[in-house]
Amino acid sequence: MCMMCSVTYATVGAGLLAFSPSTPGVTTAPSPQTLASQVTSLQRLPSTIAAFKMPTLIEPQWLKDQNAAELAAAQAKKVASTSRVVTYDVMTKGMLTASFADFRTQANATLNDGRGWSRMGVTFQEVQSGGSFTLVLSEASQVTSFSSGCGSEYSCRVGRYVIINQDRWQGATPSWNNAGGSLRDYRHMVVNHETGHWLGHGHASCSGAGQPAQVMQQQSIDLQGCAFNAWPTAGELWSSQLGITR
Ligand SMILES: [Zn+2]
Question: Which domains does the chain have, with CATH numbers?
Answer without folding.
Answer: 78-236 (3.40.390.10)
